[in-house]
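Explain this fold:

***
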Amino acid sequence: MATRSRTYKLRLSADGISLFFDCHARVGRQARGLISYGSTLFTALNLLARQEDGEIGDMLQSPETGILAGDITCFVGYPPDLADLVDRIMERIRASREIGEPVTVARLYLAALRFLAESDDHEILAAFH
């Protein structure tokens, strides 16, 4: 059985990088420590997983989510639990009647970062733990 990579390649625009760094700083402040970039991505996906299917669909299809993608390549460490979380979310999206279009994992990450950016501090801390 093949093992999964321990890094993920994010392809971000300048706006996407700015949002990622803003989110990373917020999660670090809530955690009161230095955290990995992968922990920020995990927290963002944990927040996304707590949303209703319709809210996830709206965020995935939003033009504001699309402008976060770009040509700047960033490598993010991949915590072991992240792959399982992504698989569960993607399965939920495939089964949902409220999310029509096929979704890429890259688009899922961008939507998750937007959810993190719009979340309250207590929600971020709960998703981090």
In short: The chain has one domain: 7-128.
